[in-house]
């Protein structure tokens, strides 16, 4: 088991998070569980990029048209082998 040194302020915040998580889960939680939750919470999701890329309606139409053209040419790998390509 490793020992981590944190400031009193950080420790207070972690303890507060532990209390909140404990109430949410309806059971006691360890600091290890709190830290794991914190670490996993910051993984990027597609929704993290919402509104990050600004484009005009015209640019959006061109983008989706291009995407649709590429998708229409795509075939499943098994379909390529069945047709001998």
Task: Give an account of the 3D structure.
The protein is mainly alpha-helical. Helix content is 61%, strand content 0%. The chain has helices at residues 8-25, 31-41, 57-73, 77-82. It has 2 domains: 8-41, no CATH class; 55-85, no CATH class. The chain is built from 4 helices and no strands.
How much helical structure, as a percent, in the residues? 55-70%
Helical stretch tally: 4
Distance between the termini: 57 Å
- Tally of structural domains: 2
Structural class: mainly alpha
- Described by the principal axes of the CA atoms, the overall outline is elongated
Largest sheet report: none
The parts where pLDDT drops under 50 for at least 5 residues are: none
Number of strands: 0
Q: What is the average of the pLDDT values?
A: 83
User: What radius of gyration results from the CA coordinates?
Assistant: 24 Å
Give the SSE map.
Blueprint: H1 8-25, H2 31-41, H3 57-73, H4 77-82
Name the descriptors.
elongated; mainly alpha; 85 residues
Can you give me a brief rundown of this structure?
The chain is mainly α and 85 residues long. 61% of the residues lie in helices and 0% in strands.
């Amino acid at each position: 088991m490793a020992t981590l040194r944190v400031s009193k302020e950080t420790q207070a915040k972690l303890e507060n998070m532990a209390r909140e998580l404990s109430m949410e889960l309806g059971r006691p939680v360890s600091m290890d569980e709190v830290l794991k939750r914190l670490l996993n919470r910051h993984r990027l999701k597609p929704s993290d990029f919402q509104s990050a890329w600004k484009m005009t309606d015209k640019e959006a139409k061109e983008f989706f048209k291009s995407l649709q053209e590429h998708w229409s040419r795509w075939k499943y790998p098994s379909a390529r082998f069945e047709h001998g390509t």
